[in-house]
Amino acid sequence: MLDNFEENQKQNEEYRKTAQRYHQGENTCDECGGSVNVSVYMDDYPNRDDEWLYCPHCGRKAYIRTSGIAKAEKG
């Protein structure tokens, strides 16, 4: 089980090198310049992790650090 966790952690570190980091609220995509509104639900637990999102305009990969559920919509 630990091997799967370590493998997933390494994969996330590689993704973070190329992905844009979003924050809750209004964001701007680095690739297309589109406005992206990020909402986070049920964010009241400890132990934050990466939640992977995509720009709703161009599909560029992005992430947000949260313990909840994140949703990206056109802003």
| Count of discrete domains | 1
Low-confidence stretches: none
Taken as a percent bin, the fraction of beta residues is 35-45%
**Number of E-state strands:** 6
Query: What Rg is obtained from the alpha carbons, in whole angstroms?
Result: 13 Å
**Portion of residues within helices:** 10-25%
Structural category: alpha+beta
Report the total helices: 1
Helix-strand pattern:
HEEEEEE
Q: What does the overall shape look like?
A: flat
Strand order of the largest sheet: 1-5-4
What is the mean predicted local confidence, pLDDT?
92
Distance between the termini: 40 Å
Main beta sheet: strand number and arrangement?
3 strands, mixed
Quick summary:
This protein has 75 residues and is an alpha+beta fold. It has one domain (2-74).
Description of the molecule:
With 75 residues, the chain is of the alpha+beta class. It has one domain. 23% of the residues lie in helices and 41% in strands. The protein has one helix spanning 2-18, and strands spanning 20-21, 25-28, 35-41, 49-54, 61-66, 69-74. The strands form two sheets. Strands 1-5-4 form a three-stranded mixed β-sheet, with helices on one face. A three-stranded antiparallel β-sheet has the order 2-3-6, with no helix packed on it. A hairpin with a 6-residue loop joins strand 4 (49-54) and strand 5 (61-66). It is flat, with a radius of gyration of 13 Å. The N and C termini lie far apart (40 Å). The model has no long low-confidence stretch (mean pLDDT 92).
